[in-house]
Amino acid sequence: MPAQAEILTRIARQSARPADIAAHLGVSAASASDSISSLVAKGLALRLPDPEDGRAQRLLPTEAGLCLAEKLTAAPTAVQGALAALPSQDQAALLRALTLIIRTLQEARAIPVQRMCVTCRHFRPRVHANADHPHHCAFVDAAFGDASLRLDCGEHEAALAEEAAALWRRFDAA
Ligand code: SF4
């Protein structure tokens, strides 16, 4: 069910090919296909021919699927509101702890890989002397702090395994 919710919220933002969905979730094509079939059987998604590739399909949400996706994203938005009310030091500590937990779960293959700063080839951890903004995002060419660490960034590009390990060592060297 979490996979179906993830797929539904993803295609509500933008239609996607099954192969891209499998890559996003970090699961096999067969496993993604099972979740997609369940969504289609529940009337929440449609498989349509891909206009850019006659042999491929794209997955789109139905009206019911869009309604459900809105409800699914409402809860995280409420959580984000509560987080925004915290003092910035607490936000930074919480995000840093979350990043650590998610990475540990990913390494144990308990959850799919997320598009987090600490696995992104644009991430430059601890390159600035500024204690509030020690990191740098090469994509937007800007410094930022732990409170702005991204857990699911649209501009994320996965670093190679060795590069990601080095990024983590530097990030975790505090
Ligand atoms: S592109 Fe996104 S994930 Fe990558 S470093 Fe910049 S903010 Fe983080």
Automatic annotation (TrEMBL):
SUPFAM superfamilies per record: Winged helix' DNA-binding domain
Name the domain of life. Answer: Bacteria
Gene3D superfamilies reported in the protein's UniProt record: Winged helix-like DNA-binding domain superfamily/Winged helix DNA-binding domain
Show where the HTH marR-type domain sits: 1-103
Q: Which residues form the signal peptide?
A: none
What protein does this entry describe?
A: MarR family winged helix-turn-helix transcriptional regulator
